[in-house]
Amino acid sequence: MAAPAAMKAPARRGVLLLVLAVACMLVASWAMGLVWFVRDARRPPRMPPPCDGAVALTGGQGRIEASLQLMAQHRARQLLISGVDPHATLGDFLTRTPRLLPLGVWLHTTLGRQATSTLGNADETAQWVRTHGIHSLIVVTAGYHIRRAMMEIARAVPGVTLYPFAVQPPALVHPRRLATWRLLVVEYDKWLLACVDTARWTRPVHGLIHHDDTRPVAHAATP
């Protein structure tokens, strides 16, 4: 009986070494992916070609202002600001925009009040795209959010050509701060989960999980 027991010990050790090796490979892959994600998030935005529309996803500084400037530069004919406070009006944005914009920009801007998450942004954008006959769309959001936002919107509006416009928020100006790294790690993990479409697997309970209204209030909805 001693011989079989002696044979089990090396086998058990081999399994543990295999598990450890796989775990190390996964951690290394995750870390290398994070490095790529951070570099990608900090990449300066490229000016998109003229498109039918643009969508700005609220939740961070500079996004709405950047989308309005794209409209003023005739890069988009229609603009959706997705995920604003239910009581916000265009007047709230008009009074807090530091630069005077042509009246046509405001006349072709729609406020989306339903979205409270990235998945909600995608659904709200899809409805707006169908209503306005949009075939090409600029997606405006933070650099650390652009990959996930593009992925979710692409799933919601198949056939629409998407162009990213990544805003560089203050957090990315100081990438070595602990708070910035925490934000980047969380957003990286969310993007990994989005790659396997976990949000739509859990759609039946998505409203329960995201029951808190995280939209900015009217006075804070602007960049």
Automatic annotation (TrEMBL):
Domain DUF218 intervals: 55-188
CDD domains: YdcF-like
InterPro entries: Cell_Envelope_Assoc, DUF218
PANTHER family: ENVELOPE BIOGENESIS FACTOR ELYC, INNER MEMBRANE PROTEIN, PROBABLE PERMEASE
Name of the protein this chain belongs to: YdcF family protein
